[in-house]
Specification:
By secondary structure, the chain is α+β, with helices and mostly antiparallel strands. It is about 30% helix and about 20% strand. It has nine helices and 15 strands. β1 and β2 form a beta hairpin. α2 runs antiparallel to α3. It is globular and about 60 Å long. The protein starts with 9 loop residues before the first helix and ends with a helix. Bound molecules: 2,5-anhydro-1,6-di-O-phosphono-D-mannitol and magnesium ion. Magnesium ion binds next to β5.
């Protein structure tokens, strides 16, 4: 962690970037500031959850067929309200809602579309394990005079103009990229400000950590089984003592591996005929993290294709996600290509 940058607030950082961007109007900065505020509010709610009875199930089921918890609803509503009120978005897509969310007419319609997972890792809420918010930003591509439509919401990850995530954990950290590297800001609760704590994050080319839910081993495809077997039993070949780490919150697993190096895998899950593409969502989970990892020098793949080049067909599309240090992800792809195994 660099101490010389410790005093730079996220507002300073965003405004400086705006000044350095030719033709910038301030729209993008206002959008990011609204996201930052939403995440501070969610952090406050997460920190108080055990005290004010917002843990536990809310009794409804989200579009993915999963039970929604109270904090999920609060987080979803917070992001929706704050982004709508910013006047900078023309539509939102939430992991928690089936359709594109239109912006209430009382607010100006802006030029951006944001996909978000309001509370990732929600099965961990009751156990005080790290959870987070993930977001992904696109420019509108259709005429502003019309309502936004699927063309605006279904753009490949390469078209993102920014992405990030927040982890509500031992400390609250916001990591994001606007296409010029990756920076991490840690919330100083005593002043309520995010301060630059991790400037210009670069992920190691190789790591020793692998992160995958091995309970699903019997349901993986052969290349994934062969790859994980090789990590565990192939010391004579790779000369590395790999170590397994799996929180079960994507943001936490991703963040750890981004800093330390390693590979996270959520492959296709052959046990569930409804999820032949695995569990994770392309638009609100895989694309934003793929954007960040590439900006940090890493790699993100379905095993066969670069995540950022996948053409989305529907907003809640799922995808296998293999992400992390570039050399590690490349080796996995070689297993898929049949070059190893
Ligand atoms: P969520 O967005 O509903 O919380 O689900 C996604 C989470 C990820 O955070 C995590 O990587 C994954 O589900 C864990 O799934 P599993 O329990 O199958 O390993
Ligand atoms: Mg999620």
């Amino acid at each position: 962690m660099a101490t010389d940058n410790i005093g730079i607030t996220i507002s300073n950082h965003l405004l400086l970037n705006q000044q350095l961007t030719e033709g910038a109007t301030g729209s993008y900065t206002r959008l990011l500031q609204a996201l930052v505020l939403a995440c501070k509010i969610i952090q406050r709610d997460v920190a108080k959850a055990g005290l004010v009875d917002i843990l536990g199930r809310a009794g409804t089921v989200n579009v993915q067929g999963e039970e929604v918890q109270k904090l999920d609803e609060l987080a979803n509503n917070t992001v929706k309200r704050r982004l709508s009120a910013s006047g900078e978005v023309c539509g939102l897509v939430s992991e928690e809602e089936a359709d594109i969310i239109e912006i209430p007419r009382q607010y100006p319609q802006g030029g951006y579309v944001v996909h978000f997972d309001p509370l990732d890792g929600s099965s961990n809420i009751d156990a005080n394990v790290s959870i987070g918010t993930i977001f992904s930003i696109y420019r509108r591509v259709t005429e502003p005079s019309n309502d936004i439509n699927l063309q605006d919401a279904l753009q490949p990850g390469l078209k993102q103009v920014g992405a990030g995530y927040v982890i509500y954990g031992s400390s609250c950290i916001l990591v994001f990229s606007t296409g010029q590297g990756v920076n991490g800001f840690t919330l100083d609760p005593s002043i309520g400000e995010f301060l630059l704590s991790h400037p210009n994050i670069k992920t190691p080319n190789k790591g020793k950590i692998y992160s995958i839910n091995e309970g699903n081993y019997g349901y993986w495809d052969e290349p994934t089984k062969n790859y994980v077997d090789w990590l565990k039993n192939g010391y004579a070949d790779h000369k590395i003592h790999y170590t397994a780490r799996y929180v079960g919150s994507l943001v936490a697993d991703f963040h750890r591996n981004l800093l330390y190096g390693g590979i996270f895998l959520y492959p296709a899950d052959l046990k569930d005929p409804k999820k032949p593409q695995g569990k994770l969502r392309l638009m609100c989970e895989a694309n934003p993290l793929a954007y960040i990892v590439e900006q940090a020098g890493g790699r993100a793949s379905t095993g066969k294709e670069r995540i950022l080049e996948v053409e989305p067909r529907y907003i809640h599309q799922r995808t296998p996600l293999i992400i992390g240090s570039p050399d590690d992800v490349r080796v996995y792809e070689e297993f898929v290509e049949g070059k190893r195994g």
